[in-house]
Amino acid sequence: MKKERQGFGLWVLAWPIFIEVFLQTLLGTVDTLMVSRISDDAVAVVGISNQLFGALTTLFTTFAGGAGILIAQRMGSKRFGEARTIAIMGVSVSLILGIVVSIILFFYAGPIAGILNISPELLSLSNVYISYVGGGLFLVGMIASLGTAIRNTGNTRGPMYTGVIINVIHIILNYIFIFGMFGLPQLGLAGIAISSIISRLVGVIMLYTMFRGSFEIKIRLRDFRIFNGKLFKEIIKIAWPLGINSSCWVFSQLIVYSFLAALGAEALAARTYLNTLESFCFTLGYAIALAGQIQIAHLFGAGKLKEAYRSAFRTLYIGLAIVTANMLLLFLFGRNLLGYFTSDPRIIAIGISLLALNLLLQPCKMLNMAMGNALNAIGDTRYTMYTSIVSMSIIGVGCSYWFGISLGWGLTGIYCCMIADEYVRGMLVLMRWRGRKVLRQADVLKSDENASIHRGSKRRASLSI
User: Fold this and answer.
1) Percentage of residues of the chain with pLDDT beyond 70
2) Sequence-distant (≥ 6) Cβ neighbours of residue 314 within 8 angstroms
3) Would you say 154 and 13 are in contact if contact means Cβ atoms under 8 Å apart?
4) How far apart are CA 323 and CA 162, in angstroms?
5) Which terminus of the chain has a smaller tally of CB atoms within 10 A, N or C?
6) How many Å apart are CA 85 and CA 294, to the nearest integer?
7) Residue 352's CB: how many other CB atoms inside 10 A?
8) What pLDDT, in 10s, does the model give residues 223-264?
9) How crowded is residue 384: how many other Cβ atoms within 10 Å of its Cβ?
């Protein structure tokens, strides 16, 4: 994006991200509603498969995420050429990794379903869904990496417009392929796979066109051969802890879903339906947190350290207010909303039992997201990685199995452990941010640089005399 068209205000960044994420959430809801017309078993397959896809997508979008932070920092320090090079490398590496993952999913859907503890009666459905939706997963990586690069230049509207078009195409094609409109056969889950691939391909084309013009020098295909070792090391330094952090979360969720699968299809379907409703409540809070990360990275790159520190708390307070209000609405109307997805009284009862726990879970997630993103924005990604490894493995996974499976507390026990995990990580990243370790180091470095510049100016002045 051209410099004069950039904007790094919190709301300027946040509202297009909100609309984009809201539409993604809406797309997932429409998918779930349409799949629920096939069967609750199909919903269970989609729920656990999407957890797998989320985990694997993280593996090949992490590099782009690290690149995105550095893009925003470079834009803040006016080093636009370096921002362009970082963006190109971020997209290139994500594409290569995405293709490798897609090939594995396409050819090894059966063994992967076995690893996920998918019950035998669901295997035929899971093989279709994992093979074809997973086989096109590299398109998701391309959308994420291109969108991340564009967004961190300050242009959050472009990915939003793309999201609108992707959603419209996907919903229309879902309806056509799943239910066999216009004389076509009813394809069921295979129809979702086809519509996903087509709509995502359109999104990649749109974002790539936008990406080419996001910097002062237009990006061409031959530019993807660019490799800058120094900048690559900088990306890796931020990206590998960021990747382990994100991977810990998505893989812990995947393991928890495998626990739910062991509890039965009803628990798995209930969690999938409730997760869909939770996503709507959390969408605006997530958008605020992501916008805050971009803004803090930009301020940090510009050397505005006090403003960066205050921005994190502003992001947190706004996000908490929004998420809490939304969760209260879900608590009040959750029973009626669950009825739109399923008529099974046991599944509805399970979902209702979790609504009160969500009043505790979602604010903890907002705390963790806002302060964790703030640390990531200034490059302090190793700390968030360490807290994730310890808390998620011991509390998120270990305690979930102990309370949920071994002690027989079921889904309620697993939810209590999820709350404890989010709370512990949230408090740890909050204390780290309040300690200002990285900000103080940057302030000292900035003072040394200014002193060096001042000494150089005095020497030049004395020589001129």
Assistant:
1) 90
2) 10, 292
3) yes
4) 26
5) C
6) 18
7) 15
8) 888 888 899 999 888 888 988 887 787 778 778 877 877 777
9) 26
